[in-house]
Write a structure and sequence with these properties.
Helix content: 40-55%
Strand order of the largest sheet: 3-2-1-4-6-5-7
Structural class: alpha/beta
Number of helices: 8
Number of domains: 1
Largest sheet: 7 strands, mixed
Shape: globular
Length: 231
């Protein structure tokens, strides 16, 4: 039976930059950790933690991940997802292949991970799971005997499928809303509440946004009560 390493790349500097108008730097880091915890929780449910490795340039991220019993692969700096994953692959050369899962998929489940591995047992050498708009690759499994070039942040889903097709590699496309949904924008944050998934990400968002709402209400109330002309 083939054994695959799970690679979870986590950005070290300025995570979730597009959420800068919604969250402070500290809150973005907390959101990042919450989503990583949910990802590792899904891997735990699939009994894959022992072959999971988090790769990041952030030492705090690596220490956090190690609490779950997973391996860590440090980077010297953020050079991009492709470089991070390639580094992890070279370190984990002893495996039969690799499954790459970003750390910002708070809906991913153990069943998604088991299904991808089932597709491999059924004969697929590569499994590609797209983002919601099919522009990105939110999960990728590649076998060591039939590796494909990584194209993250570059219309990756189309390019991964195209390369596997041209080379005659037997591959599967696995679409799942759980895998397709990631949190990158304020719209994603608001949509997330509609899924009703009770996990670390939901707890963080509820706690943070509720606290912010209370602060804003307090400010408005003080301004309402302030006498005219007061500083």
């Amino acid at each position: 039976m083939r054994k695959f390493a799970i690679i979870v790349p986590v950005k070290g500097n300025n995570p979730k930059g597009r959420l800068g108008a919604m969250f402070t730097s500290r809150e973005k880091k907390q959101l990042q950790l919450s989503m990583l915890e949910d990802t590792l929780g899904a891997l735990s449910g699939a009994k894959k933690l022992k072959q999971t490795y988090v790769v990041s340039s952030d030492g705090d991220i690596l220490k956090f991940a190690e609490r779950f019993g997973v391996g860590s692969i440090p980077e010297e700096g953020d050079e991009g997802v492709n470089e991070a994953v390639e580094r992890a692959m070279s370190v984990l050369d002893g495996y039969d292949g690799w499954m790459i899962i970003p750390a910002d998929l708070p809906l991913i489940t153990s069943n998604d991970i088991r299904t991808v591995l089932t597709l491999v047992r059924m004969g697929s050498s590569v499994v590609i799971s797209p983002s919601e708009d099919y522009s990105g690759t939110n999960l990728l499994l590649v076998s060591k005997k039939t590796p494909i070039r990584l194209h993250y942040d570059d219309d990756s889903f189309t390019k991964h499928v195209g390369e596997a097709t041209r080379r005659g590699i037997r591959f599967s496309v696995y679409y799942s809303q759980n895998v397709g949904f990631d949190v990158d924008t304020s719209s994603d944050v608001h949509r997330y509440f509609g899924f009703g998934r009770r996990n670390s990400t939901m707890n963080f968002l509820e706690r943070t946004l509720r606290r912010r709402s209370h602060v804003q209400n307090d400010i408005r109330e003080r301004e309402r009560r302030r006498p005219d002309g007061s500083p």
